[in-house]
């Protein structure tokens, strides 16, 4: 039991009211003295106890409330009918608090008891989040409202910053409960460093923290703080041997510019954080920079997405890859495109994350596979051999068993096993759940498909991990190629990555070669495959065939 829980139980022992600690399986692991003396004391299990502590409304209501508290991690209260040791039936208020490790704490107070006996300790508990011991949403709003009423200078700015972690739900399913708590505490610890000099720091929702700054606030200072917070999470978090990359967005609202009360300031910062999360991860934004129009546009895109996937609004273009040693175009990457009838071109950087959130990504990916299969056939028809195709795979897809089934079905039905088909997985995705990821990649390679690590250099894969990964190709991120002709350090890094990849036996793709000067440097590495605007922009199918037929030798 954590020290925190023990402290709370010690306080509750001396209360003049009943308290019960209930484990995940609803067994009762602890009761306080008052409960033992005044309520039934021989029940070992909450379901037995529930028969005696009858909910006032219907039989299952009480258990539903308990489940709700557990899943939302937010406290609730209710009224139950309860039989005392002398078998007298009385109404009883019950406060239910989520505790660490899926436990619940029930505090019962007979309605005949003097309400003032409901001591300060209970009030404290209702104000704090049990997992992090930070103020919870209700208390945060109370304190913020008080601050607003105390503002000496009405024109002074005050800022509310919401730090919204994107993947906490996924972590829940991947980790054990203890690791999940460790992760949460690490998030809190990292944020504590920046929140020290600021007045309020709270956990306002399961995956959201809030920080309020009130001294000498200027938008520039707030922006710096937001950047500092994002920097804190560049480094992965190590939780029981797993490396976790936190994905977060920071939403900022300003008082009095955005709202003049605590509730609306909090809502605006939250809305901003979640709007940012839909378009760009690990970024921040101000509420007043996100006009309603933008939010509406994102909503429209999400609503229109399923139909766009079904009809042909979403299609694929091919970005050619050039093999330096063979002096020919030898492959292409499939890139999704959406031509919306009203909104025009929508970048995949906007709609792919939305497709991931709505589950549509499964269909988008299957469409990409179908397109690849059609393309292999068309290439064969034109006598073009040894031309590889790469399909981008979104984060989490590999850990989802339905995807493996889709893939197996596709490989078998479309006879893909002997085709040069690559799946591109970004470097950061490898860290999500290392061992499961390795199993999935091995299974995919067993099906005859190759794996390419996309955006290499933007994540934190250690060399030791890198050497153990079941991958075929490293795709060096564009940021290492940019200015490689004029920036000596870039050139050194690029060479080091190529040397290392070759030593580990991986093929290499360099992406984002835009200029002749950059190409001159990259060309020195004969075993590298190059992709970038210098060679070609992404092309429609017929354009790709034109390019291949011209048999350009660059
Ligand atoms: P990515 O996989 O890193 O794809 C490369 C992106 O860089 C593409 O942008 C491409 O058009 C662009 N690019 C290629 N060469 C150059 C260059 O020389 N200079 C510059 N500045 N850019 C270059 P695009 O098509 O907008 O795609 C953006 C991202 O969207 C992709 O990044 C990928 O993460 C995602 N995406 C695109 N299509 C799909 C898809 O079918 N499925 C999934 N899951 N993600 C996709
Ligand atoms: Ca890619
Ligand atoms: Ca890339």
Please report the distance between the alpha carbons of the first and last residues.
68 Å
Can you give the helix content as a percent range? 40-55%
Task: Specify the CATH homologous superfamily of the largest domain.
Answer: EAL domain
Helical stretch tally: 21
Strand order, largest beta sheet:
14-15-17-18-19-20-21-22
Heteromolecules bound: ligand C2E, calcium ion
The percent range for strand residues is: 15-25%
CATH topology of the largest domain: TIM Barrel
Walk me through the structure.
With 554 residues, the protein is α/β, with parallel strands linked by helices. The chain has 3 domains: 3-127, 2-Layer Sandwich (Beta-Lactamase); 137-290, Reverse transcriptase/Diguanylate cyclase domain (Alpha-Beta Plaits, 2-Layer Sandwich); 297-550, Alpha-Beta Barrel (TIM Barrel), CATH 3.20.20. Helix content is 43%, strand content 24%. The chain has an 8-stranded mixed barrel, surrounded by 5 helices. It has a 6-stranded antiparallel β-sheet with strand order 2-1-6-5-4-3. The chain has a 5-stranded mixed β-sheet with strand order 8-9-7-12-13, with helices on both faces. A hairpin with a 5-residue loop joins strand 4 and strand 5. Helix 13 (361-381) packs parallel to helix 14 (401-413). The longest helix has 21 residues, at 361-381. It is elongated. The chain binds ligand C2E and calcium ion (2 copies). One calcium ion is lined by residues 454-455, 475, 511.
């Amino acid at each position: 039991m954590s020290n925190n829980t023990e402290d709370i139980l010690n306080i509750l022992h001396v209360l003049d009211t009943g308290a019960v600690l209930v484990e995940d399986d609803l067994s009762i692991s602890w009761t306080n003295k008052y409960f033992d003396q005044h309520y039934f004391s021989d029940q070992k299990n909450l379901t037995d106890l529930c028969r005696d502590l009858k909910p006032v409304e219907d039989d299952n209501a009480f258990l539903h409330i308990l489940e709700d508290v557990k899943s939302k991690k937010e406290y609730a209260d209710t009224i139950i009918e309860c039989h005392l040791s002398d078998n007298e039936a009385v109404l009883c208020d019950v406060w239910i608090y989520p505790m660490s490790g899926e436990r619940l704490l029930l505090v019962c107070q007979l309605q005949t008891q003097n309400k003032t006996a409901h001591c300060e300790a209970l009030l404290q508990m209702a104000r704090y989040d049990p997992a992090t011991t930070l103020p919870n949403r209700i208390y945060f709003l109370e304190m913020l409202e008080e601050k607003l009423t105390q503002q000496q200078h009405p024109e002074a700015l005050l800022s509310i910053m919401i730090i919204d972690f994107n993947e906490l739900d996924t972590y829940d399913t991947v980790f054990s409960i203890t690791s999940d708590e460790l992760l949460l505490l690490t998030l809190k610890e990292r944020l504590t460093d920046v929140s020290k000099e600021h007045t309020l720091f709270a956990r306002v929702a399961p995956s959201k923290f809030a920080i309020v700054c009130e001294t000498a606030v200027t938008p520039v200072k707030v922006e710096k703080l937001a950047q500092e917070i994002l920097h804190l999470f560049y480094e992965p978090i190590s939780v029981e041997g797993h490396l976790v990359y936190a994905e977060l967005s920071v939403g900022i609202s300003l008082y009095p510019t955005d709202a003049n009360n605590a509730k609306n300031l909090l809502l605006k910062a939250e809305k901003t954080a979640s709007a940012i999360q839909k378009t760009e991860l690990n970024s921040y934004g101000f509420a007043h920079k996100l006009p309603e129009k933008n939010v509406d546009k994102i909503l429209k895109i999400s609503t229109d997405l399923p139909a766009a996937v079904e009809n042909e609004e979403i299609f694929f273009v091919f970005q050619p890859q050039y093999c330096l040693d063979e002096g020919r175009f030898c492959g292409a990457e499939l890139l999704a495109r959406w031509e919306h009838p009203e909104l025009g071109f929508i970048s995949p950087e906007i709609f792919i994350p939305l497709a991931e959130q709505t589950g549509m990504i499964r269909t988008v990916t299957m469409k990409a596979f179908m397109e690849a299969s059609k393309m292999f056939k068309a290439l064969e028809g034109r006598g073009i051999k040894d031309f590889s195709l790469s399909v981008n795979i979104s984060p989490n897809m590999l850990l989802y068993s339905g995807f493996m089934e889709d893939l197996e079905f596709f490989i078998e039905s479309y006879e893909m096993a002997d085709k040069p088909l690559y799946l591109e997985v970004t470097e950061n995705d490898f860290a999500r759940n290392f061992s499961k990821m390795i199993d999935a990649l091995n299974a995919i390679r067993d099906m005859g498909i190759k794996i390419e690590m996309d955006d290499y250099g933007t994540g934190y894969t250690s060399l030791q991990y890198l050497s153990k990964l079941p991958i075929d190709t490293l795709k060096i991120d564009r940021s290492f190629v940019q200015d490689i002709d004029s920036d000596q350090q870039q050139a050194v890094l690029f060479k080091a990555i190529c040397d290392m990849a070759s030593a580990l036996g991986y093929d290499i793709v360099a992406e984002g070669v835009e200029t002749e000067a950059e190409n001159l440097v990259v060309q020195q590495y004969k075993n590298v495959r190059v992709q970038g605007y210098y060679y070609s922009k992404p092309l429609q199918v017929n354009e790709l065939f034109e390019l291949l037929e011209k048999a350009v030798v660059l």
